[in-house]
Specification:
The structure holds 2 protein chains of 2 kinds. By secondary structure, chain A is of the alpha+beta class. In chain A, 36% of the residues lie in helices and 24% in strands. Chain A has one domain. Chain A has 4 helices and 9 strands; from the N terminus they run αββββββααβββα. Chain A has a 7-stranded antiparallel beta sheet, with helices on both faces. A two-stranded parallel ribbon of chain A has the order 8-9. Chain B is flat. By secondary structure, chain B is mainly alpha-helical. Chain B has 8 helices and 2 strands; from the N terminus they run H-H-H-H-H-H-H-E-E-H. Chain B has one domain. The chains are: A alpha+beta, B mainly alpha. Chains A and B meet through helix 1 of A and helix 4 of B.
């Protein structure tokens, strides 16, 4: 092991000083930072507007007749209105949206939810009518389900039809296509049982978590639903 | 001279068909022609901007920290593209998802900085970057068109086969990427081989 004791030969090319190396990288980082900060602040308003528009479209799609919405946050066993900027972190497990029509009447609640599907997380938003105790709308926000099979959860009109008036009590059940007999049953998609079941599990979970909270909120604030009586 | 640097990326040194670089985006986001095109253009922006900058500063960046400096430059432009796509084409941005950020690690881009841009003047670096990017975009578009036409019966979202066509769903699923790329490589190498043989025959005569 004599090599280890030898002092390595000094390379003939002069090494640049550490200071030069560090300052070169610091300058690169500085310019990078300036460019990124500029782009970020220029594009932020548009990105937020896009996100808001996407959310708004989804809420209005699952709560027919809506023209406006408010954000409600869970607080204890009831709900509380919150104002969130688009930039704020919206913890989806704690938030529902209440839709209002042009007469300022409540049209229902839009409940976001997530559940692992066949490929990846399925993210949906569900429209809930607390008087009919039914799901009245269903939109898939995020899904990587198999094209041609699992993606029918948002492409197949027959499956979507399940959610125009679906009782949430007793628990929603999955049945084979063409075998729906009760108001709380969902007809699965042939060839995409896992995706269909994932959707139903997701619905039962979010209904279990929200129905009583929404009831409390309605009772406490004496809110009536559009088409079912008085105004807010 | 510059024309040569530009043209080599399109065919002779095509990053996908010859160098087989950037396989991750070439397989993952080519399930439709529009996604393939968007990924190609995003990569073009990053490669051209980075090559230009690296070439301009090639004498200032110390060689001991050059890779770090290149990555900082590349990552900056990738993030810029990410913001721009999210702001102006939210649909495309959602489709491409994480693969935008992954442009940073596309070895095509770092490879061109190390092999070309850091050793040549800006004009040449620009020609090289444009050629390579267009070659990359062209290759992605080839794969995307094949997969979308067979797998969905459409091209850029417009139906081409009419109602009676039963799509080969597998082509837009992950295995379809490998099938399309495999057959394209076969065809590409077939053509190149044939040309070589012809040239050889000419030499013999």
């Amino acid at each position: 092991m004599s090599e280890t004791n030898q002092i390595p030969a000094v390379s003939p090319v002069k090494e640049p000083s550490s200071f030069r190396l560090i300052s070169a990288l610091a300058i690169a980082g500085l310019f990078s930072g300036i460019l990124l900060a500029t782009t970020y602040s220029l594009t932020l308003p548009r990105i937020q507007a896009n996100k808001e528009a996407a959310l708004k479209n989804a809420i209005f799609a699952v709560l027919p007749g809506s023209a406006d919405y408010i954000i409600l946050k869970r607080s204890g066993d009831t709900l509380e209105e919150v104002r969130l900027g688009a930039g704020d972190n919206q913890n989806e497990e704690e938030i529902v949206y209440a839709g209002y029509n042009t007469m300022k009447e409540l049209t229902g609640f839009a409940i976001p939810g997530e559940e692992p599907g066949f490929q990846d997380i399925i993210g949906v938003i569900v429209g809930y009518d607390p008087v009919l105790r039914s799901i009245i709308g269903f939109e898939v926000l995020e899904s990587k389900e198999t094209p041609g099979l699992g993606d029918k959860i948002f492409k197949d009109m027959d499956f979507q039809q399940n959610f125009t008036m679906l009782k949430v009590e007793p628990e929603i059940l999955v049945v084979k296509k063409g075998q729906k007999t009760r108001d709380n049953e969902v007809e699965a998609i042939t060839g995409a049982t896992i995706s269909s079941k994932a959707v139903v599990v997701l619905l039962n979970k979010s209904m279990g978590a929200w129905v009583s909270v929404i009831d409390n909120y309605m009772k406490k604030n004496d809110i009536k639903l559009a088409g079912h009586g008085a105004k807010k | 001279m510059s024309a040569e640097e530009f043209l080599k990326g399109l065919w002779k040194e095509n990053p996908v068909f010859v160098a087989v670089l950037g396989m991750c985006p070439a397989l993952a986001v080519t399930n439709s022609a529009i996604n393939a095109l968007a990924m190609g253009l995003a990569t073009t922006f990053v490669l051209v901007s980075s090559s230009l900058l690296v070439s301009l500063f090639r004498n200032i960046i110390p060689k001991q920290v050059r890779i770090t400096a290149y990555i900082v430059i590349i990552a900056t432009f990738v993030t810029v593209v990410d913001f721009l796509l999210a702001a102006y084409t939210p649909v495309v941005h959602k489709e491409l998802g994480a693969f935008i950020a992954l442009i940073v690690v596309n070895c095509l881009i770092l490879g061109r900085q190390e092999a070309f841009a850091s050793k040549n003047r800006a004009g040449l670096a620009l020609a090289d970057a444009l050629g390579m990017s267009f070659g990359f975009t062209f290759a992605l578009l080839c794969i995307g068109v094949i997969r979308e036409v067979l797998g969905n019966g459409s091209l850029f979202g417009i139906g081409v086969f009419g109602e009676g066509y039963e799509p080969w769903v597998i082509m837009i699923l992950p295995p379809g990427g490998f099938f399309a790329l495999g057959f394209l490589l076969l065809a590409f190498n077939g053509v190149t081989e044939r040309r070589k043989n012809k040239a050889k025959l000419k030499d013999l005569n």
